[in-house]
Design goal:
heterodimer, A: mainly beta, seven-stranded mixed sheet, four-stranded antiparallel sheet, 11 strands, 0% helix, 54% strand, B: 109 residues, mainly beta, five-stranded mixed sheet, 46% strand
Amino acid sequence: GAVVSQHPSWVICKSGTSVKIECRSLDFQATTMFWYRQFPKQSLMLMATSNEGSKATYEQGVEKDKFLINHASLTLSTLTVTSAHPEDSSFYICSAKISGAGGELFFGEGSRLTVL
Amino acid sequence: DAKTTQPPSMDCAEGRAANLPCNHSTISGNEYVYWYRQIHSQGPQYIIHGLKNNETNEMASLIITEDRKSSTLILPHATLRDTAVYYCIAGLNTDKLIFGTGTRLQVFP
């Protein structure tokens, strides 16, 4: 099946710093990518929808200035957690939808962020 | 998107069939039923999806009731590696999939 890769798979940072997480579709083009957040023992929560070449659409309650999303190409979307705080520690997961008919969706392996 | 209800946890013996139920009584006529699973600390993995007819692939079978208000995911011969949280999601397409709490399946030797 199609592969979606996230980098880094885990990151530890100090409070107040910014962290960028990349999501790449390795063998297909993805017009649309999605970013999820998952706290321990909870389900995935959709944060935003990222469309190539346009601004991301954020879900209610997600701060767009806090979680910057850029989708500059058909194979790459980035999520930047700005001025990270310990409460931002979470498992961040992206998914990418194959462009065109069918639109199968594939998930990345996730990126675990720990803010000290 | 229709809300789904799943049991929080289930156990299954290795080698036996695992039958995971899902209720989606408010599903609309054009909403699909999707199944994903998440192994600990990994991203979700697509399993199968269907609209009205039963579906089968190399991973599992999906049985959808005639009234479409419920479905069952069947793993025919569960292995230890099938231990995961299984999510049943109803939606028009794969845009903005809304994950519920899922069923934690534990396969034991």
